[in-house]
Amino acid sequence: MARQSERIGRSGEYLVASVISLFSDTVTVMPHGSKADILFEIDGNVYKCQVKTQSQIEIHRNNWRFDLRRGSHSKDRKYNKGDIDVYALVALEPQKIFFIKETTKSQITVDDELLRATNSHDNFKNLIKEL
After folding, report:
1. Residues 5-13: contacts with CB within 8 Å, 24+ apart?
2. How many Å apart are CA 106 and CA 40, to the nearest integer?
3. What global pTM score does this model have?
4. Beta strands in 55-119, from DSSP E residues, in sequence order
5. Mind listing the pLDDT tens digit for each residue in 77-109?
């Protein structure tokens, strides 16, 4: 049986895949342990997406904190340049996704108000335009 954290992560991956599938005919959820969680193609370009899922807000700060490193069971926790094109930051309770392009940061914090006000579909469309 999978650990609870794996279930939470997998549910975020399927939520992200469902949003991406509105814009791409080719969306693949990768097996556990792959560098990228989702591969998708738009306009002939293949993108690698890493999904980071949180089930709880940081109540005392009223924000969502996402660790952008690889899992704690990985030997090398950093992603190399080119490993990831897109991060999808998922907050499970409001069912919101905040898409950002690849970054060298190891952690990112998103204000709850901003996250809840974000339209995940528009956020994804705008990110793809940037890429």
Report:
1. 6/32, 8/53, 8/55, 8/92, 9/51, 9/53, 11/53, 11/92, 12/51, 12/52, 12/53, 12/88, 12/90, 12/92, 13/37, 13/38, 13/51, 13/53
2. 24
3. 0.90
4. 63-67, 86-91, 96-101, 107-111
5. 676 777 899 999 999 989 999 999 998 888 999
